[in-house]
């Protein structure tokens, strides 16, 4: 089912940051992601598209340790990632979610500081006793957090409560918090959802700036104009399988991609009943990870431990 077009780009010889091989995720007898391969290299922006229910966010969850893949493996800079989200964050991968997950009653600066804790080296006793090492670490974290707020254009609102920010600025704050862990790869799940055209353009410029800092980017988005303007390569998932991967021109001109978005069947496409079954299984799994669940945890990037 998969078609991969290998077009030479400047990033071809760059270091492979993410290498996912044969990633499969089943919920009982239902398969949400099937044998997906994907690589992201240093200096690249890679897009992941597909109709609703294609398994994009489930694939993200497999990459970041929220789900343990039924089959396959995920490597970051050559090392197999452990199936724990906090260890994935510590290794160098950060992410945002479809729904904004800020700490609304904390300030803008405090939200970014939460994302710094995976990079702090001060022990428990140093923190409790307020030893000099704690003070130095805290000052360094605040300095880095303010640098990130300056980077996204929110330094002047550092003391504002997160809940009082406009929607577009809340999205940017969530990206800053993810960047606070100093990742080598950032995964963005629908970063422009609900944005107006000006906010979308601002987000596009922000992602380019992130890439220019040497951070690789993998992004899910339904806005096709945004994704094709932004990305070096694009992969399309349809019902959990990678349909095609290539440049923006190659992917948007593929008849199967067009058919998938228009709802027209093509050979090998799943039926509506199969799609509904997989979506129901994913929804059930999401419910078990929701913040109201007794097993909910807080992930190392400051986000709640649920997923979508």
Topology:
Elements: E1 3-4, E2 16-27, E3 30-41, E4 45-49, H1 56-63, E5 71-76, E6 79-80, H2 85-91, E7 93-95, H3 108-116, H4 124-128, H5 132-152, H6 167-179, E8 185-189, H7 197-212, E9 216-220, H8 224-230, E10 233-238, E11 241-246, H9 248-252, H10 255-262, H11 272-288
Parallel strand pairs: 1-11, 4-9, 4-10, 7-8, 8-9
Antiparallel strand pairs: 2-3, 2-5, 5-6, 10-11
In short:
By secondary structure, the chain is an alpha/beta fold. Helix content is 38%, strand content 21%.
Index terms:
38% helix, 11 strands, 11 helices, alpha/beta, 308 residues, disordered C terminus, four-stranded antiparallel sheet
Could you report the average pLDDT, rounded to the nearest whole number? 83
Number of strands: 11
- Strand percentage: 15-25%
Radius of gyration: 19 Å
């Amino acid at each position: 089912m998969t078609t991969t077009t290998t077009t030479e780009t400047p990033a071809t010889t760059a270091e492979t940051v993410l290498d996912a091989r044969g990633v499969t995720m089943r919920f009982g007898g239902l398969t949400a992601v099937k044998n997906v391969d994907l690589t992201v290299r240093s200096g690249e922006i890679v897009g992941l598209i597909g109709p609703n229910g294609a398994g994009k966010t489930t694939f993200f969850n497999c990459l970041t340790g929220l789900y343990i893949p039924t089959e396959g493996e995920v490597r970051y800079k050559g090392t197999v990632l452990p199936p724990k989200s906090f260890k994935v964050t510590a290794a160098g991968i950060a992410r945002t979610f479809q729904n904004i997950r800020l700490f609304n009653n904390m300030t803008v600066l405090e939200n970014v500081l939460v994302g710094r804790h995976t990079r702090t080296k001060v022990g428990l006793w140093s923190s409790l006793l307020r030893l000099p090492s704690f003070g130095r670490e805290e000052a360094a974290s605040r300095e880095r957090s303010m640098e990130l707020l300056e980077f996204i254009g929110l330094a002047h609102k550092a003391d504002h409560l997160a809940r009082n920010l406009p929607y577009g600025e809340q999205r940017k704050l969530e990206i800053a918090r993810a960047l606070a862990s100093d990742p080598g790869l950032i995964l963005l799940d629908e970063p422009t959802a609900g944005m107006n055209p000006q906010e979308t353009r601002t987000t596009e410029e922000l992602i380019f700036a992130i890439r220019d800092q040497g951070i690789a980017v993998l992004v899910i988005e339904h806005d096709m104009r945004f994704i094709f303007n932004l990305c070096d390569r694009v992969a399309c998932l349809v019902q959990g399988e990678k349909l095609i991967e290539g440049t923006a021109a190659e992917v948007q001109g593929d008849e199967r991609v067009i058919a998938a978005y228009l709802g027209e069947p093509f050979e090998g496409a799943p039926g509506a009943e199969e799609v509904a079954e997989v979506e129901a299984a994913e929804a059930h799994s999401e419910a078990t990870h929701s913040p109201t669940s007794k097993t909910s945890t807080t992930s190392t990037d400051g986000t709640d431990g649920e997923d979508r």
